[in-house]
Amino acid sequence: MQKKHTGLKLLAAAGLLAGVHSTSFAVDSASFELGTGNKSQLARVAAQWNWNTALWQGSSTQLGGYWDLSLAEFRQNQYQNIPGQKKNLTDIGFTPVFRFQANDKKGLYGEAGIGVHLMSHLYDNNSRRFSTAFEFGDHIGTGYVFSNGLDIGLKLQHFSNGGIKKPNSGANFAVLRVAYPF
């Protein structure tokens, strides 16, 4: 029980940190994601808050980013390593995402992020078992932002508890992301 409270405290602290670095609490964009990996699927909705200042800016490109608050549903299709046995779990996550992009934030981009996730119960699917409900989620991705602001991307996502407790087998997902600004 103590570990769940610790994860919630970390998530709350990350939320406060997001507020400190934003000039507004208004959501800048929303996204919908579908992913698959390790005989599991995920569907995720998220809200993003853009960083108002670039970390680095050149004549045509910059390193900026955004805060991402997400809610996901995982469908495990080989729960406890039994083919055909299914179980769902819910995940809430908070991730700072670094994005290398054009100064006008249009066109091709690359991004990476490492965040925290709290799952409704332990993931146990296809010989991949998590020992904690608190997980780190890191990703690398690429995408394209169209002139109307539509953002379509593909990312590789990895979940792991970072060695907090064994077993720490982790799981990988390929994720398609569609986002639109407000």
TrEMBL record:
<feature type="site" description="Critical for activity">
    <location>
        <position position="161"/>
    </location>
</feature>
<keyword id="KW-0472">Membrane</keyword>
<comment type="subunit">
    <text>Homodimer.</text>
</comment>
<keyword id="KW-0378">Hydrolase</keyword>
<keyword id="KW-0732">Signal</keyword>
<feature type="signal peptide">
    <location>
        <begin position="1"/>
        <end position="26"/>
    </location>
</feature>
<dbReference type="InterPro" id="IPR018550">
    <property type="entry name" value="Lipid-A_deacylase-rel"/>
</dbReference>
<protein>
    <recommendedName>
        <fullName>Lipid A deacylase</fullName>
        <ecNumber>3.1.1.77</ecNumber>
    </recommendedName>
</protein>
<comment type="similarity">
    <text>Belongs to the PagL family.</text>
</comment>
<keyword id="KW-0998">Cell outer membrane</keyword>
<dbReference type="GO" id="GO:0050528">
    <property type="term" value="F:acyloxyacyl hydrolase activity"/>
</dbReference>
<comment type="function">
    <text>Has lipid A 3-O-deacylase activity. Hydrolyzes the ester bond at the 3 position of lipid A, a bioactive component of lipopolysaccharide (LPS), thereby releasing the primary fatty acyl moiety.</text>
</comment>
<dbReference type="Pfam" id="PF09411">
    <property type="entry name" value="PagL"/>
</dbReference>
<dbReference type="InterPro" id="IPR011250">
    <property type="entry name" value="OMP/PagP_B-barrel"/>
</dbReference>
<dbReference type="GO" id="GO:0009279">
    <property type="term" value="C:cell outer membrane"/>
</dbReference>
